């Protein structure tokens, strides 16, 4: 049972933490949160609310996700946690040799080549079929409405949309990218903050997905449009790849941290990194949050966990390392012993940026959902299927063209995946869903939010608002602009190469919903770095 007594201490601020009883939806965009709340108020459950919010986010936050996204979900219902892996494999016709024949020395970030099978529509259908209460046609109605009628851009969305447009104007010269500009930059410019944008093609595609329970996307007219466009431009994803796809129900993995169970999705997702870092940190006693020694040990633990995660994580069927061993205390102890008074310099990795949406949902019956969906690197591949609003992800970019690499490209293989939903339980009862989006920041955000909650007793909004750090490679650490300078100086003295970022972009955007098991009261926090909102009932 989670001890919530600290929330009522007269000297602990609960600024902006939202409390409710019947239901709650936390997302990075207010209209999507309202879409989830609408599903609850129609008689739906938390699963319906999560699907409604996820579908709406493809419309109201297209700079981070789309209909052509991948997705992962953890669902707490009936006293059990269920996991859904809706990431897609590489096409059957792709190979290292075939990609190199097109002139590439490494997997490209944009265009038709890095597109793998998108899983998000299949995730909506699978979640609805297994756990939902409302018809999918009702659940997707708010998303369809936003696409048909339009909506005004929110500030953070507008910022990233404009940034992507400026970049794409420079790098997207081929005709295959024209539908992106037709869809997201009509009349040659992007919509301004507060300006109304609509996408009729997006609405039509969502209607078709809702009416066919996503069958059209994988085995119908939408599948034909997707495969034909990719085939036209020399890509590998085919109608047969789409037809063969089904999301996978999997068992989440966990570690015990100071009396709580922290849950993540198993590989090919990178949630294992967060669990490994917590295992290393578990051997230390953290007496104070804002001190140099605490941050030093946190960074070192994450650095070691990430180095190992990048070395081992790939498609679950091809992993050469045993997950149980990587989560064992013996393994954690061996890594923990490497942490001394000065910064380590492990094998470095270049960590790219990403684009993802995370949401959390809960209802008054005890059902809870942790859900994440992403195109990758903002708008994804830059490929939009003409007339449909379907922006396709570019997850294949994370494959290696080195045959000896753990994540070497292979037909039918799932790549290392950055998007990870999180969940927290205690004594067999749900505490609730949590997540922090943004590429390789995600396990680092999970690690920091969980420590803020459990070690330092911060309520959801405080746990999200606290200044964040991000290890990037070697001894390099980025910190947010408002990270205290005396801590920066102290970390530098310990050998860290600390750089203060110009803004909070790239440090993740998260949501949290915790549930009091005694009263059923829900309390939620939403990301101050986004346009986020907690819709409650």
> What's the total count of β strands?
21
User: Structural class per helix/strand content?
Assistant: alpha+beta
- The oligomeric state of the chains shown is single chain
Low-confidence stretches: 4-14, 348-353
Q: Which shape, going by the Cα principal axes?
A: globular
**What percent strand?**
15-25%
Give the neighbour order of strands across the main sheet: 1-20-19-15-14-9-8
Enumerate how many helices there are, as a single number.
19
Distance between the termini: 23 Å
Radius of gyration: 22 Å
Overall pLDDT = 93
Helix content class: 25-40%
Largest sheet: 7 strands, antiparallel
Written description of the protein model:
With 537 residues, this protein is of the alpha+beta class. It has 19 helices and 21 strands. The strands form five sheets. It has a seven-stranded antiparallel sheet. A seven-stranded antiparallel sheet has the order 7-4-3-11-10-2-21. A three-stranded mixed sheet has the order 16-17-18, covered by helices on one side. Helix 1 runs antiparallel to helix 2, helix 13 packs across helix 17 and helix 14 packs across helix 19. The longest helix is centred in the middle third of the chain and has 21 residues. InterPro entries: GGT-like_enzyme, GGT_lsub, GGT_ssub_C, Ntn_hydrolases_N. It holds the Pfam family G_glu_transpept.
